[in-house]
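As a point of orientation, let us examine one representative protein, giving the amino acid sequence and backbone structure tokens.
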Amino acid sequence: MKTDHSTAYVRQEDAPLLPPPRNETGIIGWFNQNILNLINDFSGIGAAIRSVLMAVGTLAILYYSAHILWALIDFALIEAVWSDPDELKRVVCTTEIAGGIQHNGWHGACWPLVTAKMKFLIYGAYPAEELWRVNITGLVLITGLVCLMFDRMPYRMHIGISMLTIFPVFAYIMLVGLGDWIGLPYVDTRDWGGVLVTLVVALTGIIASLPLGVVLALGRQSKMPAIRYLCTGFIEFWRGIPLITVLFMASVALPLFLPTGVTIDNLLRALIGVTLFASAYMAEVIRGGLQAIDKGQYEAADALGLGYWKSMRLIILPQALTYVIPGIVNTFIGLFKDTTLVAIIGLFDLLGAAQAAINDAGWSSPVQAITLYLLVATFYFICCFVMSRYSMRLERKLDRSNR
């Protein structure tokens, strides 16, 4: 077969001379040729020095980490005061006995303080005779969540639907009450506090922000300009202001826009503000999952003759939500920790209740604040850790590509 070389590229002239690279001339060239070459000649020694420095740094980090861990264990467990049988309050946590002689000083954590304030830390000022209502509600919540964690649980789907539809109504009736009807007197939300408020705000924000975030994410990708601009403006507005400002506006400014005589409960204002704020972040997380879906999935849905909502419900959203499970859980964890901000608008969540307990002069001691803050930090860490581990389990379960 004869090859035509008429179109082949053949250089007819020498290429123009180019200036030398900048790192070979001038001050930079002199530095590279004299200093760096000298360093390279001793590269073996330099590697050994780096290895020694890295080993020393690692040992130093391990030493200080162990020192901090031991100090925490010593404070929380070993040197801690566990009981106050004589009801001495602050005295039991501010004195020590050495050699049979009592000395003024301080031990580790003062756990009798936590025991004395336990009711306030969990329920706030909720009436003591009505605490059974909160306990039953919490028991139903925990039972439902545990049932949903097991894949082989009978009627698991029905339990999930009930937790999303029936349980909120049940919880509202039990916690708020219906006056004197059926023996459930009304309890003002201003009497709520502690863990009760923390869980109410967190669970409401988590449950309500996910479907609202899905709607906003779909609206931002809509082909209808009005819906797209409306959803985009909503998302950018709520993402552009801090949550503390949202809570202040919900608590202070919202009543100014209501008709005369119409009021909204302070807790309900916080719930609305937290939900709208979290939904904007959730929408962006879900939009990232929608953009990760290959175009072929949309075409496959069209080929099957599915409409928009069916294709989203059966094909697109299940895959998109699977892709962004880490982002969704990260938003949930951030929202759960942000519930502490409701204390600035007068709601006594767990942190607010702890701060109120710190001001009790009857338990005043050098370890009073440290003990309660350690308790609050442990509570939030356990809750966030459980959510993180469950999300990892859910990721492994839904990961089909590695099987």
